[in-house]
Write a structure and sequence with these properties.
The strands form three sheets. The protein has a six-stranded parallel beta sheet, sandwiched between helices. The mean pLDDT is 91. It is 44% helix and 18% strand. It is of the alpha/beta class. The radius of gyration is 17 Å and the shape is globular. It starts with a strand and ends with a strand. Strand 9 (189-192), helix 10 and strand 10 form a beta-alpha-beta unit.
């Protein structure tokens, strides 16, 4: 009874950790495409091809439901996958909608017409591919009106995190926040639109200041998944074993994952 979690690298471990805390009895199969990370600088077709390949690997591992714990994949590939690729007995979900529902203070699954909400000025920090897709703005427009979104493409941050260089990652975060503030000096809220970024949440908060509410995805996605499985228990797949899979070098990825989550994580070759 496994659920799959797919990411371009290590960032999706923030989602896996939150899901494991919220649903401790649910076996999870995690696949990090570390050999091809980062996705944020790739073309939409490339992202689609890599994401479908990774998702199929999770289907093969006994997962009927796969969470794309990668904003870039969710932005650039998910809609195309759902329309033309996902088998009828499988489901693939992204990470944008739970975040936007929290930002706009809507209940899980609220499909009422868009309306004015409490936030008016939102800073979006994401990969270049996510920013160029405008997927966040599109999903937000389904739920809210009158919200100004200023997006900042955060080049280099994912690379630094994947390489374990957190000092460089912190410096890049500060630089990107400074660039965003030149365009939007006083955001009401900030969205960390990449699942790698919660690993740098303190750096984002410090650079933005205490008056800006920072929205991170991991706990929101976990809560949304728990609600989804309550309504659709048949989507818990037949797999029974939790696994960590990577397209990269298992020993190297295991060491970095253990560093990030502060518990032993052992990856196998995908």
């Amino acid at each position: 009874m496994a659920v799959g979690i797919f990411d371009s690298g290590l960032g999706g471990l923030t989602v896996l950790d939150a899901v494991a805390r919220r649903l401790p009895d649910l076996p999870l199969v995690y696949l990090g495409d570390n050999a091809n990370s980062p996705y944020g600088v790739r073309t939409p077709d490339d992202i689609f091809d890599l994401t479908t390949k990774g998702t199929q690997r999770l289907f093969d591992a006994g997962c009927d439901l796969v969470i794309l714990a990668c904003n870039t994949a969710s932005a650039a590939a998910l809609r195309r996958m759902q329309e033309a690729w996902v088998p009828k007995n499988k489901r693939v979900l992204g990470v944008f909608v739970p975040l936007i529902e929290a930002l706009t203070e809507r209940q899980w699954g609220d499909n009422s017409p868009p309306r004015e909400v409490g936030v008016k000025h939102v800073a979006l920090f994401a990969t270049p591919a996510t920013v160029s897709s405008r997927a966040f703005q599109r999903e937000l427009a389904f739920r809210a009106i009158g919200v100004d979104v200023e997006a900042q493409a955060c080049g280099g941050v994912v690379d630094a995190i994947e390489e374990g260089d957190l000092i460089l990652a912190e410096a890049l975060v500060k630089s990107h926040v400074d660039a965003l503030k030149r365009k939007m000096p006083l955001p009401d809220a900030a969205v960390l639109g990449c699942t790698h970024y919660p690993l740098m949440a303190d750096a984002f908060q410090e650079a933005l200041g205490p008056d800006v509410k920072v929205f991170s995805q991991a706990a929101l996605v976990a809560e949304s998944l728990a609600d989804y499985l309550t309504r659709r228990p048949e989507m818990v797949g037949p797999g029974t074993e939790s696994l960590f899979l990577t397209s990269g070098k298992p020993a190297q990825v295991s060491a970095r994952a253990t560093q990030f989550l502060r518990r032993q994580i052992t990856f196998q070759a995908a």
